[in-house]
Specification:
With 425 residues, the chain is mainly beta. 8% of the residues lie in helices and 44% in strands. Strands 1-4-3-2-35 form a five-stranded antiparallel β-sheet, with no helix packed on it. The protein has a four-stranded antiparallel β-sheet with strand order 5-6-7-8, with no helix packed on it. A four-stranded antiparallel β-sheet has the order 9-10-11-12, with no helix packed on it.
């Protein structure tokens, strides 16, 4: 135990002593990022914080591979993982202040193969961690277990918008004979009183949490009949459960990618619908009313697939990416898939799909567009770089990159990055 403390102390000293300021990889005009918040990104395994107001770049770690940076609600703290170069499945959870000071590894959590989920409260600097149960920790980094589970359990978790409750799902006890018919339950936990309420049981099905409704009056999740991994990969039916109601509303199936969901304050959800694990076919945008269950298809770019949707801050426009629909009759070659990926472009439209226009200067291979707080800019990944472009599509600026393959997590059923988080104030 003493040796572990010494190693931890040395790691903290090493990270704290290597904080540096450098602008060698920043090519954006300072005026573009001015008043547009702060950016955390990972390049060559190094977590870096870029202050939009000053252009100051701070490096956080010099050793290990950083992953999954996540800003606290006020932008004062950043949570992230550091994994071994030799074993990327094992990691330690860290916190650091926005100016790069006070880096600390979180101790007191059970040993685990990567922390399944960690999410900041939307109202306080409290981090919820799913790891053999659910733990809460504040800025001092002292974990407190609030939900106890088995050793191999990492519950899905989601904060309520007011930061007072956490929704989570667990598989109910079952015998070996019942394994194929086991059921999940949906719970909410009041973090002040500790009161837990069972909201719903999904008979013979799994529950994967998506998010709370924006007004906090309901919870959105995917239902997985039989807990099938293959079925989940092909897309699951989405369910919308009002608080206090036992029967959810149902929406069409889609892939269980939280990055394919965007919410408006009036409880509208912009999502990618369409079953099938292949991203290159049969994917379209829908706007769902979470309170009534009504759905309207967003008709843009006929003959194409659409993905990575994002509401503008005023919810009057949407940003998304498109590429040609390759069809599902035969599996395309890797070369054809690569060409398809390179053809993905950035678009903006009104929420009903009208006025759709391509932002051609954004380039190709576009992923994960996100609006600035004032709606004037869109930040996105393309060609292993992070870019920002004005919402009219007049000029783009490179922010950071290139990112290596080790910086990004590639999935068989599509790709997603874990290399950046934008605090927009």
């Amino acid at each position: 135990m003493q040796s572990k403390k010494i190693i931890l102390f040395l790691i903290i000293i090493l990270i704290g002593s290597t904080l540096t300021s450098c602008n060698s990889n920043i090519s954006a005009d300072e005026s573009v990022l001015k008043n547009e918040g702060d950016l955390a990104f990972i390049q060559d395994g190094i977590l870096q914080i870029l202050e939009g107001s000053t252009g100051r770049l701070t490096k956080i770690n010099e050793n290990g591979q950083a992953l999954r940076p996540k800003w606290s609600h006020d932008g004062q703290w950043l949570a992230f993982l550091i994994v071994s170069q030799q074993d990327r499945d094992s990691g330690t959870l860290w916190m650091v202040k926005r100016d790069g000071t006070e880096p600390r590894m979180i101790t007191g959590l059970p040993e685990a193969r990567m922390y399944g989920t960690y999410k900041w409260s939307p109202t306080e600097n409290i981090l919820a961690v799913s790891c053999q149960g659910i733990w809460l920790l504040d800025e001092q980094g002292q974990p407190k277990q609030v939900v106890k589970t088995g050793p191999d359990t990492t519950p899905d978790i989601a904060w309520s918008p007011d930061g007072q409750q956490i929704a989570y799902s667990l598989t109910l006890p079952y015998t070996q004979e019942e394994v194929e018919n086991r059921s999940d339950a949906l719970y909410t936990l009041d973090i002040r009183s500790g009161q837990t309420v069972q909201r719903l049981i999904a008979p013979a099905a799994g529950i994967r949490l998506a998010a709370w409704w924006p007004d906090g009056q309901g919870i959105l999740y995917w239902e997985n009949p039989g807990h099938g991994a293959s079925a989940a990969a092909d897309g699951l039916e989405m369910c919308s459960l009002p608080i206090g109601v036992k029967e959810p509303l149902h929406f069409t199936a889609g892939l269980t990618k939280r990055g394919w969901l965007s919410f408006a304050a009036d409880n509208r959800l912009l999502r990618v619908a369409g079953a099938g694990r292949q991203e290159w076919t049969n994917k379209w945008l829908e706007i769902c009313d979470l309170t009534t269950g009504t759905v309207a298809r967003v008709n843009v770019s006929p003959g194409s697939v659409t993905a990575d949707p994002s509401f503008s801050p005023d919810a009057k426009q949407i940003a998304f990416v498109t590429a040609p629909d390759l069809g599902s009759k035969e599996y395309p070659s890797m070369g054809k898939i690569e060409d398809w990926t390179n053809s993905i472009t950035l678009w903006v439209a009104n929420t009903d799909g009208s006025g759709a226009r391509s932002l051609a200067k954004a380039g190709n291979s576009v992923q994960e567009p996100q609006w600035s707080k004032d709606g004037k800019y869109i930040m996105y990944m393309a060609d292993n770089y992070l870019w920002i472009i004005d919402a009219q599509g007049n000029e783009r600026h490179r922010i950071a990159g290139p990112f290596s393959t080790d910086d990004q997590t590639d999935y068989y059923y599509g790709s997603g990055s874990e290399v950046w988080d934008w605090y927009r104030g």
